[in-house]
Design a protein that fits this description.
mainly alpha; 2 domains; about 50% helix; Dynamin-type G domain-containing protein; GTP binding; G_DYNAMIN_dom
Length: about 100
């Protein structure tokens, strides 16, 4: 079943593979394979940053009044083994 493939373990296993492919394609400039991408577009203060943070599961973008995140943003998922997750989470919390 296709739905059983899209479980957390399988999706996490794809992250390092996709990262390697992105690195190779960026190095050689190949566009032969289109990797998954999400583009968020909307008017000012319509929740674009909130959508991105919701997908990532962490607040990391600047907040304020007016135009705050006026720039292109490229995020790349990186697989973090379970034993490293607590350490990396602590690093992020201290910044």
């Amino acid at each position: 079943k296709i739905s059983s493939f899209y479980n957390s373990a399988n999706m996490e296993a794809l992250i390092p593979v996709i990262n390697k492919l992105q690195d190779v394609f960026n190095t050689v400039g190949a566009d032969a394979i289109q990797l998954p991408q999400i583009i968020v577009v909307g008017t000012q203060s319509s929740g674009k940053s909130s959508v991105i943070e919701s997908l990532v599961g962490r607040s990391f973008l600047p907040r304020g009044t007016g135009i705050v995140t006026r720039r292109p943003l490229v995020l790349q998922l990186v697989y973090c083994p379970k034993e490293d997750k607590e350490h990396r989470s602590a690093e992020l919390d201290s910044t």
